[in-house]
Amino acid sequence: MKSSIFASAVAASIALASAAFAADEYNVSNGLTLNGMPLGFHGVDVVAMTTGERLLDGAAAHAATHDGVEYYFATAAAKDSFEADPTAFLPQFGGFCTLGVAVNKKLDGNPRFADVRDGKLYVFVNQTIYNKYKEDPVGTITAAEENWKTIQNTAVVDL
């Protein structure tokens, strides 16, 4: 009986999730958090990444939700900073791989392969792709910004 109620609650959470979640505008982990939301940025603290700190895992105790996606933070202070101005810390292109977006694809963005340029956080799928980006970061970002306008609201499976 309890599992049936839980399953119904999870199904309702998914059905009521924002349109952004349904349209794959954000790169989220498989599954849902305890709050019934998709987890953004693999649970890594985006404030720490954007401000140049080392890669820090966030914790559910310091969770904040933005646009239907839940983000975890290493500290309450980081959570507060995010809540004050989420767009200052969110990874570009919904957390998808910047080089992938530059070629009209939504590939997983891995926080281990990231670059902060002009205060913006860009992520990449792996070391090889990150190295390719470093050959022409401005060109890659420019192409990704242009392509994002057309693929942002497109489901991953449709690209």
The largest β sheet comes out as: 2 strands, antiparallel
Low-confidence stretches: 1-22
Tell me the overall shape: globular
Strand content: 15-25%
Number of strands: 6
Q: Biggest sheet: strands side by side, in what order? A: 1-2
Q: Could you give the order of the helices and strands?
A: HHEEHEEHHEEHH
What percentage of residues falls in helices of 4 or more residues?
A: 25-40%
Distance, first to last CA: 40 Å
Mean pLDDT: 87
User: Radius of gyration, Cα only, in angstroms?
Assistant: 16 Å
- Indicate the structural class: alpha+beta
Put simply, the count of helices is 7
Tell me briefly what this model is:
With 159 residues, the protein is α+β, with helices and mostly antiparallel strands. Helix content is 39%, strand content 21%.
